[in-house]
C-alpha cells in the first residue's frame, strides 16, 4: 500500500510548485488562486475555492404600466414599489415606469390626441410624469418626485412642491415646456406604442411585468409581497 502523504506536505508542494495539477496557463502561486474569479478561472480551480466571491446577478427587471390617477396604480406605487426600491440595493432591482395605461391615442387632423380613463387631468398627470422622467433622466432623481405626486392630494398641482423637496436641481420650467410642446406628445406616443406592444396585451392597470413577462401569478405575487418576489428571483 502506498504511503499516506500528510496534508501539510501537500500544501507545501502546492506553494512551491503552483503549476502542479492546474492549467498550464496559470502563473499564480497557490495562495493566490482564490483571490479573484479571474485567477481561479485561469488556474481552473474554481471548485477548490468555496469562499470565492460570486459574480453579481443581473437585477430583476420590473416594469409598471399605470395611470396617474388610477387608485390601484397609486396604491401599488406608493405602498409597494417605492418602499421596496428604498429597501433594496440598486443592483437588485431595475424599474421602468410607463404612465399611459388604458388611455387611447387618436390622430385628429394630423395631430395626436389622447383620451384617458379618468379624464383630461389624468392625461395631464401622465404627460407631466413622462416629461419629468425625460428631464430628470436619473431614476433615483425622478422616482421620489413621482412618489410625492402620487401620494399627495393632487398629482397635477403639486409638482413644484415635490420638486423642491426631492429634486430641487430639476427645472420645473423645462417640464412645463415639455408638457405644453411637441416633446410631451412624442413621449406619450412612445408610451402608447410600448403599452400596445405588450404580449399578452394588458387587460387592466396596474399591469406589472417581471423580467419581461406577465402572468397572473407574477402579478399576484408582486401585489402581495413585492420585496419577497424580488428577493426570490434575484440569483
TrEMBL record:
GO molecular function: oxidoreductase activity, acting on a sulfur group of donors, disulfide as acceptor
UniProt cross-references to InterPro entries, sorted A to Z: Interferon-induced_GILT
Keywords recorded for this protein, A-Z: Disulfide bond, Glycoprotein, Immunity, Lysosome, Oxidoreductase, Redox-active center, Secreted, Signal
Biological process, per Gene Ontology: immune system process
Matches recorded under Pfam families: GILT
EC main group: oxidoreductase
EC annotation from Swiss-Prot or TrEMBL: 1.8.-.-
Name of the molecule in the record: Gamma-interferon-inducible lysosomal thiol reductase
Encoding gene (name): Ifi30
Amino acid at each position: 500500500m502506498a504511503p499516506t502523504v500528510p496534508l501539510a506536505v501537500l500544501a507545501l508542494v502546492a506553494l512551491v510548485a503552483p503549476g502542479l495539477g492546474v492549467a498550464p496557463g496559470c502563473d499564480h502561486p497557490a495562495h493566490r488562486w482564490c483571490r479573484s474569479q479571474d485567477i481561479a478561472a485561469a488556474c481552473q480551480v474554481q471548485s477548490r475555492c468555496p469562499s470565492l466571491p460570486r459574480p453579481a446577478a443581473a437585477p430583476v427587471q420590473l416594469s409598471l404600466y399605470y395611470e396617474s390617477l388610477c387608485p390601484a396604480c397609486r396604491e401599488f406605487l406608493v405602498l409597494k414599489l417605492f418602499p421596496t426600491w428604498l429597501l433594496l440595493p440598486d443592483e437588485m432591482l431595475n424599474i421602468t415606469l410607463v404612465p399611459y395605461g388604458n388611455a387611447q391615442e387618436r390622430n385628429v387632423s394630423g395631430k395626436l390626441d389622447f383620451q384617458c380613463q379618468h379624464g383630461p387631468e389624468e392625461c395631464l398627470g401622465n404627460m407631466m410624469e413622462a416629461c419629468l422622467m425625460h428631464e430628470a433622466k436619473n431614476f433615483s432623481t425622478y422616482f421620489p418626485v413621482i412618489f410625492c405626486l402620487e401620494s399627495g392630494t393632487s398629482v397635477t398641482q403639486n409638482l413644484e412642491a415635490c420638486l423642491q423637496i426631492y429634486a430641487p436641481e430639476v427645472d420645473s420650467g423645462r417640464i412645463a415646456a415639455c408638457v405644453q410642446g411637441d416633446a410631451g406628445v412624442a413621449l406619450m406616443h412612445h408610451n402608447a406604442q410600448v403599452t400596445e406592444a405588450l404580449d399578452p396585451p394588458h387587460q387592466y392597470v396596474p399591469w406589472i411585468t417581471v423580467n419581461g413577462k406577465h402572468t397572473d401569478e407574477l402579478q399576484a405575487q408582486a401585489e402581495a409581497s413585492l420585496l419577497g418576489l424580488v428577493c426570490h428571483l434575484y440569483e
